[in-house]
């Protein structure tokens, strides 16, 4: 109790509104440890609404909902992206509207991003991106065409001087704004992922973070945008995630395990899939990066649409020697030793042409009655997996993008592997639901039944004979046709030692063997990387306004989070003292809950969907679906508004 009183007294003494702190500073006394936390806490706890703007108050044209708010780098301008095809520019200090651009796009405006102090970009549901100059707003500089669906997000890479956009078409494009052509800018599609929602860059542009409708965060460390399209060509995050969840080897997905190697120096991929207990995240709709690039702030909707959560995940790269707990696997045994090959007589190898094998027919799956909502969710996941990724494309004057070597995979092989993945995860979930309802016993071998029903692992009656029972001339062909995955767990991956897949030719390396020696079976090694625990903080939000994206934001110093909360907002900190993230996680052993230090409810007449802190001042703005914008500033007295 004495410590708590001492802390309260210390916080009050070094508050931003206490003259004692100014006297100490004028006299030249050094700041004690914790005084910065006291100043920040007093300022943020004193945030109160001081002014507002809406179209009815100033007899302006209706703007619709305010979907995004963005400050200029100096904090001298505020731009609002509005639902009814307009952008509104304000002076954030006087709270007055400076200029209005009606008809900025052909559909609602979704996002605003400043490239420097004078130029900014907007994106819209009309699938275009527009460049603007604040000195001449009567006409846009240029419209950028390339996306095939709603464009929801804009980022700017200060390292590469490239504009990065993403949309609901699942594509991420880069635009070289300094390379004009007769028709467009030089652009390139660098990545495609089904169910993509948001794409963010760290302040130094060394990391890219993506969120999806599958409850997954994808981090790309040591980002190199110029090589991203080549390094990640053909990689499907949803398919690899299905392989992780089912613990079933899918060769078409496992062939990209090198992207997760901690020794990669560029474009290393990492999945983040850990969420708090009680939060079965499905749609991660909002995403923000810490001002120092330390963490990612996200807001997700649970699969039953009954709850929303805000989470903070660590995104800093770990050292290659670090090894945190593995969430998706049990304590693993060491990897198996390499298989010993049976000596065979030396013979002159004959080159043999592999006969064409048509895809095997799908195994019949007995349906199990489940709830309508869970069935719809599984169908959506299967649609995301089976959706084919389009090839990377380049802009009109950029030429063809450098393509990696094509792997020797036929279309039938890819279709079979994708089918095996979707059926595997479907059966796995159905059997888990049966076990939870008590329809199967504890000794029910779920993995064995899973393999039999999907056709991936044949039943005992259909299991092929050992190679020693085959005639000698037929052993090589039998070794090629027998699938036998053997999993083994390690600290961060599941290892598989398999024979060639029955669903087609899956390359194990860049060099394909053209022939198989008689009596010699071909062994291939795969790894299924498991995801590390990255969750730091979390809090449950109100579920009001289903279907709308609520944009959260960090404060300029990263100490605070503003979260839309119904018709108002909440201010969330990592602890009661408003400490920085680096000071809070030193002794933290498990995810903690964020602390609410302030709120302002009922200020708006409709649902709040956007919020933003000023980069230079202790100033906060929020926007709602009714088109109203409210300013908040620290104030020691009663609210002025």
Automatic annotation (TrEMBL):
Q: Which Pfam families match?
A: WD40
Tell me the SMART domains matching this sequence.
Answer: WD40
Q: Where is the composition biased (Basic and acidic residues)?
A: 372-391, 510-525
Disordered, as annotated region: 315-409, 498-525
- Spans of WD repeats, please give: 102-135, 144-185
User: Among the entry's GO cellular component annotations, what is one?
Assistant: Cul4-RING E3 ubiquitin ligase complex
Family annotation (InterPro entries): DCA10, WD40/YVTN_repeat-like_dom_sf, WD40_repeat_CS, WD40_repeat_dom_sf, WD40_rpt
Q: Where is the composition biased (Basic residues)?
A: 343-357
The biased composition feature labelled Polar residues covers 499-509
Question: What is the protein named?
Answer: WD repeat-containing protein 55 homolog
- List the source organism: Pieris brassicae (White butterfly)
Record lineage:
Eukaryota, Metazoa, Ecdysozoa, Arthropoda, Hexapoda
């Amino acid at each position: 109790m004495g410590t708590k009183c001492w802390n309260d007294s210390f916080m009050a003494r070094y508050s931003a509104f206490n003259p004692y702190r100014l006297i100490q500073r004028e006299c030249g006394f050094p700041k004690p440890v914790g005084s910065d936390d006291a100043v920040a806490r007093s300022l943020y706890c004193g945030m109160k609404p001081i002014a507002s703007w809406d179209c009815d108050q100033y007899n302006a044209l209706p703007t619709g909902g305010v979907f995004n708010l963005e400050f200029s780098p100096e904090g001298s301008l505020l731009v609002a992206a509005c639902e009814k095809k307009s952008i509104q520019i304000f002076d954030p200090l006087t709270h007055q509207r400076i200029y209005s651009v009606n008809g900025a796009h052909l559909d609602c405006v979704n996002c605003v991003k400043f490239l420097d102090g004078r130029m900014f970009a907007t994106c819209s549901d009309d699938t275009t991106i527009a460049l603007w100059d604040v000195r001449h707003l009567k006409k846009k500089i240029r419209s950028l065409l390339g996306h095939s669906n709603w464009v929801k997000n804009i980022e700017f890479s200060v390292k590469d001087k490239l504009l990065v956009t993403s949309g609901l078409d699942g594509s991420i494009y880069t635009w070289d704004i300094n390379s004009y052509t007769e028709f467009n800018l030089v652009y390139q599609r660098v990545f495609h992922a089904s169910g993509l929602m948001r794409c963010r860059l760290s302040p130094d542009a060394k990391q890219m973070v993506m969120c999806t409708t599958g409850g997954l965060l994808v981090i790309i460390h040591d980002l190199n945008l110029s090589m991203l399209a080549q390094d990640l060509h053909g990689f499907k995050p949803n398919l690899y995630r299905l392989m992780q969840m089912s613990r079933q080897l899918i060769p078409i997905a496992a062939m990209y395990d090198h992207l997760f190697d901690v020794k990669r120096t560029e474009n290393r991929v990492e999945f983040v899939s850990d969420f708090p207990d009680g939060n079965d995240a499905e749609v991660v709709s909002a995403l923000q990066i810490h001002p120092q690039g330390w963490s990612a702030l996200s807001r997700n909707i649970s699969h039953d649409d009954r709850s929303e959560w805000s989470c903070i995940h660590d995104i800093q790269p770990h050292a290659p020697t670090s090894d945190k707990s593995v969430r998706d696997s049990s304590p693993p045994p060491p990897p198996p030793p390499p298989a010993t090959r049976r000596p065979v007589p030396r013979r002159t190898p004959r080159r043999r042409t592999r006969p064409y094998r048509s895809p095997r027919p799908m195994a019949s799956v007995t349906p199990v009655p489940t709830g309508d909502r869970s069935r719809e969710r599984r169908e959506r996941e299967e649609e995301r997996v089976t959706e084919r990724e389009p090839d990377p494309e380049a802009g009109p004057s950029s030429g063809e993008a450098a393509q990696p070597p094509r792997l020797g995979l036929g279309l039938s092989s890819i279709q079979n592997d994708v089918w095996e993945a979707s059926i595997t995860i479907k059966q796995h979930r159905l059997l888990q639901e049966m076990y939870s309802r008590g329809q199967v016993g504890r000794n029910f071998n779920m993995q064995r039944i899973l393999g039999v029903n999907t056709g991936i692992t044949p039943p005992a009656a259909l299991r092929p004979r050992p190679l020693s029972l085959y005639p000698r001339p037929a052993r090589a062909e039998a070794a090629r046709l027998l699938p036998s995955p053997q999993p083994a767990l390690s600290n961060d991956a599941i290892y598989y030692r398999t024979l060639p897949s029955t669903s087609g030719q899956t390359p194990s390396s860049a060099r394909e063997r053209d022939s198989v020696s008689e009596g010699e079976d071909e062994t291939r090694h795969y790894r299924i990387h498991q995801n590390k625990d990255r969750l730091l903080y979390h809090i449950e939000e109100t579920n009001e306004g289903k279907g709308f994206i609520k944009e959260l934001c960090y404060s300029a110093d990263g100490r605070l989070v503003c979260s839309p909360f119904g018709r108002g907002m909440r201010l969330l900190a990592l602890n009661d003292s408003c400490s920085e993230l680096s000071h809070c996680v030193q002794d933290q052993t498990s995810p903690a809950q964020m602390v609410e230090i302030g709120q302002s409810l009922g200020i708006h007449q409709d649902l709040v969907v956007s919020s933003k802190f000023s980069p230079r001042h202790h100033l906060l703005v929020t926007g709602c679906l009714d088109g109203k914008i409210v300013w908040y500033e620290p104030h020691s007295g009663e609210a002025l508004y």
